[in-house]
Design brief:
The chain is built from 1 helix and 38 strands. The protein is mostly beta strands. The N terminus is likely disordered.
Length: 487
C-alpha cells in the first residue's frame, strides 16, 4: 500500500469518528425526602431535640436531622429504595442512650414522603432516700435497679442501672425503661477486700453491718415490691430503711495449677448478677482482693445468703484474659464458714460440630454458621475468644475457655432450617447455660440442624387494615411464636 493511500484511509476513519454522536451522560436518580413528627407516647405531645436519621443497611447515615420544637424532622437528599429510618430520643445521661424506634420505608424516585411519624416511650426515673434504723441518712450506698429476666430455663435477677447515695442519703436512678417491672436494691458495696480480715474471731464482738435491702424494706428478693413507672414518669420517695445485722466470715485456701498460690478473688451475692436483660446489658465489678503466696483468705463483713466466690490468676494487665479461673458457691446462715477450698482450673478446649439431624441436602450450603458465646454473669476479658465460624456440616473449636457459664447464640442458619438441639457431652443444653468443664471425657459441643420445621406467616395491621411496619427490639408490635404449654 502506498503512502498516499494510507493517508486517505486515516482521513476517512477520522471523518467516520466525527459522525458518531457523543454518548449520553447517565443521569442520577431523582432524590427524595422523608419527614414526619416524633411524639411522646405517654402524653401525645411533640418531642424536640430527637435525633432522626436514615441508612440503607449499613452503619453510615445517609441523612440526619434533629426535631424542632414541634417535633418535626426532614431527611432530604435520599436516593430511591428502602431505608431504615430511626428516631433516637433524648437521655438524662448523654445522646444516643435514650429510647429509639426504627421503621423500614420504601422511597420512590423523587418522592417526598411525609407523615412517617414515631412515638417514643421516654425513660422514667426513680428517686428516694436510704435511711438507717434511726431514720438517719446513709451515704455511699449503692442503689441498683434490678430486672427480672427469664432466660435459659431460669428466672434471673440482673442489674439494669446503678446510683450512689449522697451525704443526705438521696439517690436518683435514670434510664428506667417503661413497660418493665423493676426491683430497687440498696446495698453496701466495697471495691477492695483485705485477704486476711482483722475482724474479731468472736462474731459477737464484730460491728453490725448494713444488710442488702429491697424496696419497700425486705431482705428477700421474693418479698420485694416491683415498680413499673409510666413513660417519662419521675417516681419519687422510693425510700428504703436499711437495718444492720451481725456479720460473718469465710475462711479457706485458693489453689491453681500445682497448689496454693497468690490469686485474685472476688465475692458477691449469687443474685442479682451482672449480665444481659431486655435490650441491653450491665456489668458491675465485684468486691475483690489478692491473696498471699500461701493462698489463705479470711473474708469478713458478709451477711447471710448465697454468695459466689470467684478465683482467678492475678492478671498482669487490667482486663487481661486469665489462664486460671474457677467459681464456688458459699452459703452463709448464722455462723462463719471455714475450710473452703477454691480452685481455679486452667482453660479447657471445647471442640464442636455442626450436623444435620436428618438426611443432609444434596448440595452443601455454601454459607457458614456463626457460633457466638457470651459469659452469663460477667463481661468478656480482653483476648477471650467468643465466636467461631463453621461450614454446614463441619467442625469448629474454642481452643481455650474458662470453666464458667455461657450463653450461646447461633447466626446464619440456612433458609428452611432451624436449630433442633444443642448438646454438650451428649446432654441437651438447648434451654440451659453452657457449663464449660461439665462434660465427661472428651465430649464436645454439637449443634444439630433440621429441615422438618413448619412455616407460620402473618400480617400485622391496624384497625383500618394498614400494615404496621415498625421493626427492631423496641417496636410497638411483635409477633411471637411459643409452645402452647408455656403459661
Amino acid at each position: 500500500m502506498s503512502e498516499k493511500t494510507f493517508m486517505v484511509m486515516l482521513a476517512a476513519a477520522a471523518a467516520i469518528a466525527q459522525t458518531v454522536p457523543p454518548s449520553t451522560p447517565q443521569t442520577k436518580p431523582d432524590t427524595g425526602s422523608i419527614s414526619g413528627v416524633v411524639w411522646n407516647a405517654g402524653a401525645r405531645t411533640p418531642l424536640a431535640d430527637v435525633d432522626a436519621y436514615a441508612n440503607r443497611g449499613s452503619s453510615s447515615r445517609q441523612a440526619q436531622a434533629t426535631t424542632d420544637s414541634q417535633g418535626r424532622y426532614v431527611l432530604g437528599g435520599l436516593a430511591p429504595g428502602q431505608h431504615r429510618v430511626t428516631a433516637s430520643g433524648p437521655s438524662e445521661l448523654s445522646r444516643g442512650f435514650g429510647p429509639s424506634r426504627t421503621r423500614l420505608v420504601a422511597l420512590a424516585a423523587g418522592q417526598d414522603l411525609a407523615s412517617i411519624d414515631f412515638e417514643l416511650r421516654l425513660h422514667g426515673q426513680i428517686s428516694g432516700r436510704i435511711i438507717d434504723q434511726n431514720s438517719e441518712p446513709v451515704p455511699e450506698i449503692a442503689v441498683f435497679l434490678v430486672a427480672r429476666e427469664y432466660s435459659l430455663g431460669a428466672l434471673r435477677y440482673v442489674f439494669a442501672s446503678m446510683a450512689r447515695t449522697d451525704d443526705r442519703g438521696e439517690y436518683v436512678l435514670n434510664r428506667v425503661e417503661p413497660g418493665r417491672a423493676y426491683l430497687v436494691l440498696a446495698q453496701k458495696r466495697r471495691q477492695q477486700l483485705d485477704p486476711i480480715s482483722e475482724a474479731p474471731a468472736n462474731p459477737r464482738l464484730r460491728k453490725l453491718t448494713p444488710v442488702a435491702t429491697y424496696y419497700p424494706g425486705t431482705t428477700s428478693v421474693e418479698g420485694a415490691q416491683p415498680l413499673r413507672p409510666d413513660p417519662g414518669e419521675r417516681r419519687e420517695r422510693v425510700d428504703i430503711r436499711m437495718l444492720r445485722a451481725p456479720s460473718f466470715c469465710v475462711e479457706g485456701a485458693l489453689e491453681a495449677g500445682s497448689g496454693p498460690k497468690s490469686l485474685r478473688f472476688e465475692i458477691a451475692d449469687r443474685q442479682p448478677s451482672s449480665g444481659a436483660s431486655g435490650n441491653g446489658a450491665m456489668y458491675i465489678a465485684s468486691p475483690s482482693g489478692v491473696s498471699g503466696p500461701d493462698g489463705r483468705v479470711r473474708i469478713c463483713d458478709l451477711t447471710p445468703g448465697d454468695h459466689q466466690f470467684s478465683v482467678l490468676e492475678n492478671p498482669t494487665a487490667a482486663g487481661a484474659y486469665p489462664a486460671f479461673f474457677g467459681r464456688v458457691q458459699v452459703t452463709i446462715t448464722d455462723h462463719d464458714v471455714g475450710g473452703i477450698t477454691a480452685a481455679a482450673p486452667p482453660r479447657v478446649p471445647v471442640p464442636g460440630e455442626v450436623a444435620w439431624s436428618d438426611t443432609p441436602p444434596d448440595s452443601p450450603d455454601p454459607s457458614n454458621l456463626s457460633i457466638i458465646i457470651q459469659p452469663l454473669t460477667r463481661a468478656g476479658w480482653r483476648g477471650e475468644v467468643q465466636s467461631a465460624k463453621c461450614s454446614i456440616p463441619g467442625r469448629f473449636s474454642f481452643d481455650g475457655m474458662l470453666v464458667d457459664e455461657y450463653s450461646i447464640r447461633i447466626n446464619g442458619v440456612p433458609a428452611g432450617a432451624y436449630v433442633k438441639d444443642i448438646t454438650y457431652g451428649g446432654r441437651s443444653i438447648r434451654h440451659e447455660p453452657l457449663r464449660v468443664g461439665s462434660a465427661i471425657g472428651e465430649g464436645g459441643l454439637r449443634i444439630i440442624l433440621a429441615r422438618d420445621g413448619g412455616t407460620v406467616s402473618a400480617k400485622v395491621a391496624d384497625k383500618d387494615g394498614n400494615p404496621l411496619g415498625e421493626i427492631g427490639p423496641n417496636a410497638d408490635v411483635r409477633v411471637t411464636l411459643q409452645p402452647a404449654s408455656i403459661d
